[in-house]
Write a structure and sequence with these properties.
Layout: E1 8-11, H1 16-26, E2 32-35, H2 51-66, E3 70-79, H3 100-113, E4 120-131, E5 137-148, E6 164-166, H4 178-182, H5 194-206
Bound molecules: inosinic acid.
Length: 208
């Protein structure tokens, strides 16, 4: 059966970090990745109410704007004691200046205000959507479960990494190198991060 994706694919992001990460994951599959930013495509507002809805609207905007298949992701942290918040609002929770030291303090305070006691269960979610110019879409989700630790630990990674301790590990994401968190094991076993897990599901259906 032919692969779902061959040749050129638009990565629907203007974020250089995300672009690099997705382009690196796509490299072994011989995909010619080009970014929405490089094509001058506008970035739509994230008005969806789920991770998949937001990933889909970003992928669709790039696919329709370029005439090529496009891939987009949307992700965030869901905290049980906060009924799943900040969830799809994880970036916005860090304020206009995207200050994650402030966001992690705010999380600690809001969890304490709810009277919750440790362990503070939480999970990261990543949705990856693929869209075609005719409006067809395919979406995949990856999750990683763990607990939140305060104060934050480690200076690696980004966002909420220093407070997230994945289940079965003794280092937070902030204490792990990117390769440990985001790489796809060559033996076919499950990756660790939510994004790498969503990518594994996408690759299995669309690239293999
Ligand atoms: P978006 O996917 O660009 O909408 O942003 C999601 C937000 O969730 C990011 O700004 C981060 O704050 C947070 N986030 C998503 N994935 C991770 C991760 O792997 N580590 C730390 N924070 C993350």
């Amino acid at each position: 059966m032919p692969r779902l994706i061959e040749g050129k694919l638009v990565i629907a992001t203007h974020n250089p970090g995300k672009l690099w990460e997705i382009a690196t994951l796509l490299k072994p599959y011989g995909i010619d990745a080009v970014s929405a930013g490089d094509l001058g495509l506008p970035e739509p507002e994230e008005t969806g109410l789920t991770f998949i809805a937001n990933a889909e609207l970003k992928a669709l905007a790039s696919a329709k704007g370029s005439g090529l298949p496009a891939i987009a992701d949307d992700s965030g942290l869901c905290v049980d004691a906060l009924d799943g918040a900040p969830g799809i609002y994880s970036a916005r929770y860090a304020g206009e200046s995207r200050d994650f030291a402030f966001a992690m303090q705010k999380l600690e305070k809001e969890i304490a205000d709810r009277g919750a006691t440790p362990p503070f269960h939480a999970h990261f979610v990543s949705a990856i959507s693929l869209a075609w110019p005719d409006g067809k879409t395919l979406s995949f989700e990856g999750k990683v479960f763990g607990t939140l630790v305060f104060p934050p630990r480690g200076g690696l990674g980004f966002g909420y990494d220093p407070v997230f301790l994945p289940n079965g590990h003794d280092k937070t994401f902030g204490e792990m190198w990117a390769v440990e968190k985001h790489s796809i094991p060559v033996d076919g076993s499950e990756a660790l991060s939510h994004r790498a897990r969503a990518f594994q599901a996408f690759a299995k259906t669309c690239l293999e």
